[in-house]
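Task 17 of the worksheet. Students: predict the tertiary structure of the chain below and write it out as structure tokens. Keep your answer in the requested format; marks are given for formatting as well as content.
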Amino acid sequence: MSGCGCEIEIKNKEQSRVLVQLLAINGVMFVAEIIAGIVGDSTALIADSLDMLADATVYAIGLYAVGRSLVAKEKAAHISGIFQVMLGLGVLFDIVRRFFVGSEPESLMMIAVGAVALIANTLCLRLIYKHRQGEVHMRASWIFSKNDVIANLGVIIGGVMVAWFASPWPDLIIGLIIAVIVISGGVRIINEANKEKKGRCAVVDQIPSSKANTNKKRSIKLLLLGIFTLISVAIGIQWSGVFQPEPIPQHLQNMGGDFTLRSADGPVALKDFRGKVVLIYFGYTNCPDACPLTMANWARALKQLTEKERSKVQGMLVSVDPERDTPETLNEYTAFFHPNIIGVTGSNEELRKIVSLYRSDFEIEQEGDSENYSVAHMSFVYVIDPQGNLRDLLAHESLPEGIVKSVRNALKVGG
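Model answer:
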């Protein structure tokens, strides 16, 4: 019976059913991705999860708008767009923070969670497809779902590239792209809502199909161009050495070497720490200034590293005062500063051989039979990379920021 409003009621119920399904899918995926992003230290996953949150909010607002006036639907779309722009700006802030603080994303988690999210959002696209040319709040839902699929593909590509280059840069780049997509999607929704408000929706809805197809092809081309550009930039950066450690300075190439000394837990060899960056310092526990300053700066530097970076760094105080510094004394001393620092020592003969490998030296300055003697020693921090090569030489008074930079450069070598 025409004019009874039955078609409108059916349409409203159908829209509500679709939006409830979309809300449920995106709500679940937001929780899953935000947890995976935090655990996996991935900017791209966190960005994608916030995109899911924005979409879930959009669908909730869309549910509110179903069956209401055009003005209410326009307001709903407008609020949705503003919310998405704000989340996109939040992601940009996180990217800048990670750029300076550092991160170490888990590539396998990015790929796996990105694939699950892609399946979920492909389902969302199928659900919303028939409503893609509908009222403004449903068109907003369609735009968000398309953006999600693009973002998911980006996360998967980013995960592959993180594994390929062994670098967090692809994750940051993908996170940046998703943030731009989120912001541009929000701006587009705001523009759509404004057009509705100005009464131009009829013109928008009547765009010839040929022009719509042209726009679709243009979007696909832009997406492919963006992916190609990302891969090209990443490869170019790889070749330029940004992902590679700085070369070993020539004056360090013939320095260093493996050794075995004693700790409170038994014999310790430098090669035991292959796969980690090792900081070595020759000193002693009764040192009044240089040694405690060095240990304190190591501790502060270790705190500035991420948890995953810290797990790959080992500090080693080599005591050149074996008469007073027993393994137990060294253990108590180093534990005061940081659990990642151990103390080792050996006989005078062993120590002489080791310091000569590192072009260092020490001398006992003793007057008579006094036990309150001092030890003159050279004060350098030797940075050993995960392959066991001397990578850098730092002054003992180096600030934590300088130590962190040197450690991160050495971590690029890999074990």
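Marker's comment: The CA atoms of residues 289 and 397 lie 10 Å apart. The chain has two domains: 6-240, 250-411.
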